[in-house]
Design a protein that fits this description.
Blueprint: H1 2-23, H2 31-44, H3 62-74, E1 79-83, H4 86-98, H5 102-112, E2 114-119, E3 124-127, E4 132-137, E5 143-154, E6 157-167, E7 173-182, E8 190-192, E9 205-208, E10 222-225, H6 247-265, E11 270-274, E12 297-300, E13 309-312, H7 318-335, H8 354-360, H9 362-392, E14 402-406, H10 414-426, H11 432-439, H12 444-454
Parallel strand pairs: 11-12
Antiparallel strand pairs: 1-14, 2-3, 2-10, 4-5, 5-6, 6-7, 7-8, 7-9, 11-13
């Protein structure tokens, strides 16, 4: 883990040093913030500093689980609709292309604290703090100067591109591209012309304004960051990894789980057996021989008149340890924005209805809403960047567009919803065919036909059915 972390820091220093030298700028992110993000990334990747094979301390990588679950809730049934003009149709197509990457990108942003989405001409790239340097922010903490790092490998050669975005003094939006080539992936290498790389279609320096020479509304990228305040570097625009305040509890959880797992591993019943009781069939009694015993049998040398035999059944403390594990899970959940009891070691009890869930999980609901607001802001920035790029390269005609977002209800219960709808049918509040369409996957025609068939026939004038 130490080697991996050292390589990451070394590569980051090379990237920053070359960016500062080439563009004559300095990063605004503090070393303390860089160190915390690097520490959290190593934990997220399953390489925390506390793993110790000699002491039987492993990791269950619960930080990854937290990020996965949070990303799942944030993007649950997410919909992004862009409409209003041919430009809107073009933008909708671009969003549709990257739709299934949203959850993965959100998870990366949660683990790193920040993720930036930027158009690349044919799609969208995602950048985490290891791949960008913030050079300036406005009075509201919004990024208005940043250097991105991109790269690819061709044979034994490694190509790197630095892309510098900023607003210049006269409100012109400037983008500068510089390319480098090296023989190793852990170095920047020497500068090379863009024409000699796969970025040959890019200009070394480009300047962008609106058609009326006004300043762009925002930079050409979208920023997703966690919603909580940064208490490590209050001046930083970067977000904190969502588990950054629960690192100590994650360590304690790994230790508690490892102790329990080790106890179970060595809990096999052991039989202590007098060596005089082991003898191969057909051998003379009292003769010595080597006998391979089962794993759970241990031979002891008897020197008393009586033969020795004893079974040892280790007692497990699983139930007691489970209480401790659940305590750590509760701490971690609360520190990461969730309600107490969201994560437990075994099955959850109680909270069986959506109403109860809503009452017990208000903290979780508010946290996910805050993260969804951050995602909407990020997508607004990305869609605007896609619009500007489309206008610059003539990919779609200029035009106004509207963006609408939709998200799934995190407290929705399918079974409860189904039961409630059936009550409505029984109480004649809704027609039965609507229930069949919604919950039985029938078409409207099939459902109505079934409902019609189930209706009793009307009696005749003399009380008999025809």
């Amino acid at each position: 883990m130490g080697i991996i972390s050292t390589i990451r820091r070394w590569w980051g220093m090379l990237f920053k040093n070359e960016a500062e030298r080439e563009f004559k700028v300095s990063p605004v992110t503090s070393p303390q913030m860089d160190a915390l993000i690097n520490k959290c990334v190593m934990i997220y990747r399953g390489h925390p500093a506390w793993v110790n094979e000699e002491d039987n301390v492993r990791t269950i990588n619960f930080a990854k689980t937290i990020c996965e679950e949070t990303a799942r809730l944030i993007t649950l049934a997410v919909s992004i609709s862009v409409s209003g003009s041919p430009m809107g149709e073009y933008l909708q197509g671009q969003i549709d292309k990257c739709y299934f990457n949203l959850r993965k990108w959100v998870e990366m942003g949660l683990a790193h604290g920040t993720a930036i989405l930027k158009p690349n001409g044919s799609g969208v790239d995602v950048f985490t703090p290891a791949d960008f340097i913030i050079t300036s922010t406005d009075d509201n903490g919004n990024i208005n100067g940043i250097i991105f790092k991109d790269g690819y490998q061709n044979g034994n050669r490694y190509y790197t591109r630095l892309e510098y975005h900023r607003f210049e003094a006269d409100y012109v939006y400037a983008i500068s591209n510089r390319a480098y080539v090296s023989d190793g992936q852990d170095e920047i290498g020497k500068k090379i012309e863009l024409e000699k790389t796969r970025w040959s279609n890019l200009l070394p320096d480009a300047y962008i304004t609106k058609e009326n020479n006004e300043r762009l509304d925002s930079p050409l990228f979208g920023v997703f960051s966690t919603p909580d305040a940064n208490n490590v570097d209050s001046r930083s625009t970067l977000g904190l990894p969502i588990f950054s305040t629960a690192i100590e509890e994650l360590k304690d959880l790994d230790i508690a789980y490892s102790r329990n797992a080790y106890e179970i591993d060595i809990s096999q019943k052991i039989t202590l057996l007098d060596d005089r009781l082991t003898q191969k069939s057909g051998m003379k009694i009292g003769s010595s021989q080597d006998i391979k015993l089962p794993k759970f049998v241990r031979n002891v040398f008897g020197n008393s008149a009586d033969d020795f035999y004893r079974e040892i059944n280790p007692q497990l403390n699983t139930e007691m340890r489970k209480v401790g594990i659940n305590m750590y899970l509760s701490f971690i959940a609360y520190k990461c924005g969730y309600s107490n009891g969201y994560f437990v070691f075994d099955e959850k009890t109680g909270m069986v209805t959506a109403t109860q869930i809503e009452a017990d999980q208000q903290r979780t609901i508010q946290f996910i809403k805050d993260c969804r607001d951050k995602l909407e802001n990020c997508m607004d920035g990305l869609i605007y960047a896609l619009q500007i790029m489309a206008e610059l390269y003539g990919l779609a005609p200029s035009g106004q567009y509207e963006v609408e977002y939709g998200f799934g209800d995190i407290i929705y219960s399918y079974e409860e919803d189904k039961a409630n709808w059936w009550k409505y049918v029984v109480n004649r509040k809704i027609p039965a065919w609507k229930y069949f369409v919604k919950f039985e996957n029938m078409t409207e025609e099939e459902a109505k036909a079934l409902t019609e068939e189930a209706q009793p026939e009307e009696p005749t004038l003399f009380g008999k059915e025809e």
